[in-house]
Amino acid sequence: MTKKQKKKLCQLQLNEIKTSDDPTKLSCSFVIFDFDVSHNNAVISKDVALEAASTIINKPIVAKYYEVDELNTSTDALGTHEAYLDTDKHGELEVKRDTAPIGVFTSEGYITEIETPEGKKEVLAADAILWSSRFKDACELLLEWYGRGININTSCEILYSNYTMQDGIEHLQSPIYFEGHAILNSEKRGEHDIVLPAYDSSKLLSFNEIQQFERLVAQAATRQNNEEGEKMNKFRKVFELSHSDVRTLLYNQLDPTLDKESASYIADVYDTYFIVNVYSWSDDNSYDKYFKFNYTRAGDTVSIDFDSKTEVFMTRNWEEVVPEPIQTQLNQKDEQIKDLTKQVNQINKNKADIELQFNTASEKLVQLNSEVEQLKPYKEKHEKTLLEQKLNEKNEFYKAKFEALNAEDKFSTEEVQNLIHASIKQGGEGEKAVLQLNTMLVDLVSVPTETNTTIREFSSKRENLIPNDDSFESRFSQ
């Protein structure tokens, strides 16, 4: 079936660079594509590719070269397609590119075999030369990448008009024409990121120009569509595998949901969501908005959650350029902050250890207090038993003393009983009570008065009271 003429971006891979005696050129070859179904669900058969192979020869190889920031540094890089919207000499809008031709394809496309992890595979390839003497720096960068084994990304645009859809796969039909070929930045160097082998407007213009760029493209496409009908050339968003494959799959699901007077541009793609700029040039409903959609990915398929559609906007900050001396001071401060952070972390660790020890001791103390509380009734009972035993001993002791003095009534008085209770206490109070009890006992002792019973008799005669006879008989006989 015949459709509007479309433009597809295809990945080329720089397959080989050959040196020669001619210092003005580098010979090389590119692998353009194989004949399997691509990850954007498109396929070019071997027969169709052979028919289009003749359109490769003499097509330019272009690049945008960025010079080094400083001499003898690895800061040079290549750019992107460097596309922008401008008018031709007739005032018609067209997409132009700020690139320079650095080489040309010197052969038609041909079928060859390459080694892949899955084995040998047939591919469409083509030979080319790069003008190394005129574009020495760019060619030296390519040789550096090639020598280091870095995959050199390139891309070309294919113009086609006819295709068929079978089981969701787009089969491109003749005629197919190869148009342009660009070598893309294949390594992050300085401020230049890797450019994926796909047409990505976010790599072409600063963000605040993208809306105008896309709007003008849409307006130009609409104007051309109105003037030329089915003959219009329309860009088709189709990308190869990797990060751009996800974009392609998202486009394939998103674009069919848009009306014919609107278009989309996926600005950013993340693991679980993407940001898309949807703009409409309809007279009744013209808008230019950004939306966030969630999506899931399983293998080579994606699924957009259209219910998660949320309008979003982007913010941008301007940062001051820091002079080198100040930057050096900032770096020193950063090192000090790192050292202080380590010290703080060590202090916090020590604090945590101390807190752990304190908590452990507190738990032990609580446990001991609990055990003390459990033993307290037994202690009180034991002390009460000892107190009663001592009181009974004192009571028996003083009871016997008072009974010996016939003072049982005195013993039973409240005064004596209080003194007995006080006498078992330690310290001065107990000693004072004992002294009072002993004094009381002493006072109860009565000493009888002795009567003088001496008998005096006067002898009526005076004589020697000691007999002269000292014999036993005289002493003890009557």
Describe the structure.
With 478 residues, the chain is of the alpha+beta class. It has two domains: 2-220, no CATH class; 324-440. The protein contains nine helices and 18 strands. It has helices spanning 46-52, 136-147, 207-228, 243-254, 324-404, 408-411, 414-423, 428-444, 472-476; strands at residues 2-18, 26-34, 42-43, 60-63, 65-66, 77-78, 83-87, 93-97, 100-105, 110-116, 119-130, 153-166, 169-183, 233-235, 262-269, 273-281, 286-298, 301-312. Helix 5 crosses helix 7 (414-423) and helix 7 packs across helix 8. The protein is rod-shaped. Residues 330-408 form a coiled coil. Keywords: Coiled coil.
Attribute tags:
single chain, about 475 residues, alpha+beta, 7-stranded mixed beta barrel, 4-stranded antiparallel sheet, 9 helices, about 35% helix, rod-shaped
How do the helices and strands line up, and which of them pair or pack?
Layout: E1 2-18, E2 26-34, E3 42-43, H1 46-52, E4 60-63, E5 65-66, E6 77-78, E7 83-87, E8 93-97, E9 100-105, E10 110-116, E11 119-130, H2 136-147, E12 153-166, E13 169-183, H3 207-228, E14 233-235, H4 243-254, E15 262-269, E16 273-281, E17 286-298, E18 301-312, H5 324-404, H6 408-411, H7 414-423, H8 428-444, H9 472-476
Helix pairs in contact: 5-7, 7-8
